[in-house]
Structure formats: structure tokens, C-alpha cells
DNA sequence: CATGCGTGGTT
DNA sequence: TAACCAAGCAT
């Protein structure tokens, strides 16, 4: 059992997957697959990009809204930037949304509206890296690509008891994942390892008692599974501070600005702010601003505290930054979360005149 | 190869 | 509750 051939391990896993595969909107159910139905590369791609560093629970609703609104890659490619950024609002890592659009347009412009079918061809597209290219090639086209995400890293580290810490151990874990990748059903294999990692071989308290690889797992044999994979310690998050100015005009329009394409919250709608390094900054408009409170929000690598100031502007007001967006065109759901929090705080003080 | 880049759920 | 974590990519 301990030194079972890779093909046997793969067979055990696929048998487990056939009984335990999670149902998701972007997956083709087993019975349809048996009947020859292939996954739509557009839907596979969209789901994989949304799932980058993001939970299945968070993605589900976004995926359904996107596919309802833009059923094909051509539909998405024809969308306005602001529509897509607004629909992505709240999902995070907004560079994904910008790359999503760039990728859709590249597929239409350079590939006749058809996604490249190979890992190699997919790798050249915006927002598609080693993981996503392999996942699409395997799931949508049954290419025996080696799919390595955080789940696979964890499962391999435990199965083979790899003690070396990430990210250094990545190459070795990829090699081990490759040994296990079958020529037959590589897409199901990839999804099976990820389902195993998400439901049984979980980070904290793995359910080794019901694992299809029980008896073959070297970490479990030694009782060290919960401590693998090892990871380098992360740096503490500093606290940054800033000011946010939220103005509303007499007709109900909100003063907003489109953030720069690159960097934090790039391309998203927001309110005018100072820099976020404690330094000052100028208000976007000369008004009798009133401070109403603060918003706290934590990003990937820092905590942010924003003092929120509100002001009422007359119809003649001409802002130095940003623009007044009519009340009926302003949708809080289009805002990234920190801006939505600020809006929640400010809306009471700025209720329509 | 290290860093920047969101968010919400779990422990 | 602060820390950790999730189907990574671009630079």
C-alpha cells in the first residue's frame, strides 16, 4: 500500500471522484459527460479565473451573473470596461477583471473567438498563468497537463511527506503531481485532487479516516499531515491611514472617480481620496466638509483606516478630480468593498435633499 | 525570486 | 480576535 504505483493511486482517486464530485455551475455533470458533452472552454476559463485565490462559495453567484449577462466570449469581449469592472466589484483582485476583458478581446481578435486548445497556446493570454492554462487544457480538452494549485501542493506535500517549505518546494511538488497525472481523464483527475484538498485533505483538520489514499499517505502514516505543507512565515501587516471625500450634488449625483488602471483597486470606481500613507492630500472640491467617521478595511498586505468626510455641492460645482455621476447611474454594488463601506457610512448624511 | 494585489469565511 | 486561508498572476 505504501508504495502503490501511481496508476493505482490515480484509479483510487477517480473512483472516489465519481461518487463524490462536487456539483458546480461550471462543471458538466458525470451523466452528461458520459453522453459525450464537453465542457465549454469559455465557462471553464471564466470559472478558473474567478477561482484564483477565491473560494467556491464566493465565486458561484458571480459566475452565474457573468454567464447570464455574457453567455459567450464574444459577448464579453463586446462589453464596456465599466460594465465588467462593476460586475466584478466585490470579488477582489481586480487585475483579474482587467485581464479577463483583455483576454476575451484577444481571443476574438486573434483566435476567431475560439480559445486555444492547448496549455501552450493558452499561456500566452492575459491573466492565464501556469495553473489556469493547465486547468483549462485538462478540463476542457483532456490534455494531460499537470495542474498545480494550492490544493495540489498540499495534497502532494502530505502524500509524499515533503518537508521542504513553500514556495521553494513548488518545483518538487509539481514533479510529484506530474507522476500522478493520468493520460486518461486528466481533467477529472485534476478536479478530483482539488476536491480532495477542499473537502478531505483540508489545511487544518484533514479527514484522513475517509480519504481514498488512506494507507498510501506518508504524512498520515507518521501523523504529521496537519503540519504540511510547511510555509515561510508571512510579514505582519502595517496600518495605513488616509482621507476619503464623498460629495453629493443638489440633484443627487455622487462625486466619484475611476481609479488608475494599475495598482490597488485599479480600474475600479471609487471616491476621491488622499494618499494612503498618512500624508495629506487635497479635497477634490472646495466645500464645507464634515467628518462623519472612519472606515476600516484590510487588504492583502496592510490594514487601512480611512477618515470619511462628506459635503453637499451646488449644481454649479466643478470638481478638480473625478466627476459627478447621476444618482440613477450610481450603483453601490459597482464599488470595491472598501468604497462600498464608505458609501454605507456616508449615505445617511447625504440622503437626497 | 519577492512583492503587490481583495475579500469573506474559519479557527 | 487576530491570523490564516482560498482553484494565482504580473512584474
From TrEMBL:
Protein name: Adenine DNA glycosylase
Annotated EC: 3.2.2.31
Pfam families, A to Z: EndIII_4Fe-2S (PF10576), HHH (PF00633), HhH-GPD (PF00730), NUDIX_4 (PF14815)
Organism per entry: Paragemmobacter kunshanensis
Reaction catalyzed: Hydrolyzes free adenine bases from 7,8-dihydro-8-oxoguanine:adenine mismatched double-stranded DNA, leaving an apurinic site
Cofactor(s) it depends on: [4Fe-4S] cluster
Keyword field contains 4Fe-4S: yes
Keywords associated with the record: 4Fe-4S, DNA damage, DNA repair, Glycosidase, Hydrolase, Iron, Iron-sulfur, Metal-binding
Superkingdom of this protein's organism: Bacteria
